[in-house]
Amino acid sequence: MAAEGAKAMRVVIVGGGTAGWMTAAALARLVPAAQAEIVLVESDEIGIVGVGEATLPHIRAFNTRIGIDEADFMRATGATFKLGIEFRDWARIGDSYIHPFGVFGRDTDGVGFHHYLARAGQIERLQDFSLPVVAARGARFAPPADDPESLLSTYGYAYQFDATRYAPYLRVRAEADGAQRIEGRVVAVDRDADGGRVTAVRLADGRAVAGDLFVDCSGFRALLIGDTLREPFEDWSRWLPCDRAVAVPCASQGPLLPYTSAVAMPAGWRWRIPLQHRVGNGYVYSSAHVDDDAARDALLAAIEGPALAEPQLLRFHAGRRPRGWVDNVVAIGLAGGFLEPLESTSIYLIQIAITALVELFPDGAIDPADRDEFNRVLGIEYDRIRDFLILHYHATERDDAPFWTRMRTMEVPDTLARKMALFRARGRVETYREGVFLEPSWIAVYLGQRIVPEGYDQRADAPDAAGLARAVERLHAVTAAAARAMPDHREYIATIGAAA
Amino acid sequence: MNAPIRTIAVVGDGIGAWTAAAALAVRLPGVRVALVPHTARHRAMVDTVGATTPAALPFHVDIGWDWRDALARTGGAIRLGTQVTGRDDYVHAYGAVGQAAGARPFPAVWAAHGIRPFHHYAAGARLGLAAKAPSRDPALADAIFGLVLDPDRYARAVEGYAQHRGVMVPAAPLAEVARGDAGVAALHLADGTHLIADLYVDATGRERRLATPDDAAAWEDWSRWFPYTALTTATAPAEMLLPSLDRMTIADGAITVASHLPDRTIHLRLARAGATDAETLAPGRRQCGWSGNVVAVGEAHVVLPPMQGLPFHWLHTGIDRIVALLPGRDCAAVEVDHYNRTANDEADRLRDLLLAHLPLADDAPETLRDTVVEFARRLRWRQRDGEGFARDDWAQILFGRGIRPAHLPDGGDAEQGRRLLDDIDHRLAAAVAAAPDHRTFLEGLTR
Ligand SMILES: Cc1cc2nc3c(=O)[nH]c(=O)nc-3n(C[C@H](O)[C@H](O)[C@H](O)COP(=O)(O)OP(=O)(O)OC[C@H]3O[C@@H](n4cnc5c(N)ncnc54)[C@H](O)[C@@H]3O)c2cc1C
User: Fold this and answer.
1) Is the Cβ pair A369, B377 closer than 8 Å?
2) Distance set, CA A37 to CA A13, A21, A184, A221, A225 (Å)
3) Are residues A226 and A329 in the same domain?
């Protein structure tokens, strides 16, 4: 609620990519008009990154909050359902596991299912006890159930969609909710006499767009937070050395899979994201370990169907700005930081930043405490995702390429080293209250990366061996049957009227 | 593979020791537990006042002892929370308060439109102010409660229960602790025999009998924030209408707490240091609750003042944590460090909750400052690592202390907001009127 008589804050969003339009749509919908006037500046000349097709389940809450209808959204963006991410060839060539959006088996008496499986000497079968994994492998999908007793409530889902269509889709809503779009290229930035806050951005045609609060959604350019305010960039490439990607869409072959794949490559990894109308592919690599031409050739050789466009080259660095909100500039999206799309976290991070901004939206002057809180929340998220990503690279047995040897032997942050050691000792997961990725995600990746616990929770010794074996087999059968009963993914999309 | 722990020796003789022994014996398959008697130098707070938090209910379920049976056998009562008077007047009752209006959390609705106190919309507070106990009415479903155990009778009962569940008791008490590289090498008993275990549990309270001098010295003192360290205890006859909230008065010079049992009331007074007949109770925690093959429970790790059931809460959650994080026989550093980190996170949040009742000190712990400042600015409350309580526990205390948000979050339409508040009020009023009084409720448990 704005203080009586306070005038609305003019918010200028610079950039109309996914970050810019998500921000515009959310602010226009969630901050009362009396408190904020929303303007978005974008340049058709410059264009958007246009990759970023795989998401986490949190996006559903975002879409719901701004009033998006699922089937309509899926039609408009050619979206498919996503139950998890497959990792192929990561710990060893030939390996494959899925990090599902859901739990494994059934915890009993407060003891995680994987401990019982470890006791039964069958922990390598864990994947078979995740309904979303089994359904995903069979190209099946059904929405989860509400009843917490049901096996069908043990998972969530996200989407895979055409990144170039999401921003325009949001734009329509943002404009309907009162956001105003200005076409133009920003060429200069005006600041206070004392060189502090930003007062306006100047466009190529000479217009000035003034504002009280600026949201930097200019992508890797980081026009305001970087070029203007010079907030440093904390570089994480010593742990995450991939600094380029080549992306190309292709025609799809075979069944429509409800999961994203991340296939390890000699100098990085390759994504495969199935959409309704095509498959998105890309090779994320370390330019120190492979040159651009070789990377492009490797990608083109690996894709399943004819390329539908020219391969596109992207450059980046892993890391973040320690402060995403400085003075009256809030960086959201690639301007604030970048973590490679291995776990589909970029759009999630945009969403977290937007949620924090809405919750901390200034009423009147900007309170420095709001900035600190914003930066604290984002900092925790970035740090925890960083560790999770490094885990995939570091916990490997691969020694077939210099890239993998480097990743396997590098020193990792202490926060990660101790998490890995803890899991290896007894299958325990260091959990936390703030930040994405809960216990099942860590378990999936630890085991998938062949960190096999040496012990298990002693309480898993409680049931008698024969009874435990029977319960395990029953759960296995029930999971398989529940997956088989689900409709085919493509058919389900058609049934709910979500087919493009 | 690192061999599992098969034998555990608990040292102590109070409620903490017997509770730990019983829980470990019941919950850890294949483990034998012995309790080595050692009369503690100080009486632990759980042996003085039996107030628990709601954590006591699942704790008893997990050790296979129905809490109703425990209460009925030992003549205890329930507590829905605490009524605070003195500097401020408020109730902190357990459980969720009010009801969200769509995406708008209840504290925001209340801050914008509420006229009656915040706790007026808490089922537990309304029941408690009427000396009543919950019925099955769904309007009261949010009222959860802890127990008020009779320390003397419960001590005997839990001792009996532990022995019934197979806890062994050697014939002679502890005489000497033999130390080794890993911590304790053996316990020498008064009859010349000795006892060796894979793991030793120090339940000797503030004496910390099993800790090495170094470990015992690594102590973080909290009395600079909580200077009420002079404790005196008195007993008075029970009240006719048995309260279901304990009463706490916070004044500058002293905090008093009344804890209500069916047959007597225990009065505690915590004064700023001074009074000569008082016992000194300095809150704080040891850095390492677990060190080598020794783990401390209760006051041997963290000392909390006898307010809001915190000493029992810490005992129960600490034992749960040993069960949940039990390492192998070698007590590997990676597992023990994890235990200590999570234990200390929790202890620090309990300290914060306790200090939240007092004005925020300039040098207040950072985690507390963050929580209070964020709440006072915008009613933001984020669950931190180690948090054992919920948003509405904090909201009742902070609102109760008169803290109001500087930036009022959007409370929604005034008309609708007031209607929601009135609805909740009426529903609670009707349900409380029909609910049993506390004594009737307790009688119902034995039937
Ligand atoms: C290889 C790769 C793969 C990815 N895969 C995923 C994924 O699977 N899942 C996921 O969640 N995320 C993924 N991401 C991240 C995702 O693409 C981005 O988070 C998302 O697209 C948001 O980008 P953005 O809006 O911040 O920047 P951009 O899309 O770059 O938008 C920047 C905007 O700023 C405007 N602009 C820039 N300069 C000016 C100027 N001077 N004047 C006016 N306007 C200007 C541009 O016109 C554009 O509108 C991936 C990223 C990369 C690089």
Assistant:
1) yes
2) 11, 15, 19, 25, 21
3) yes
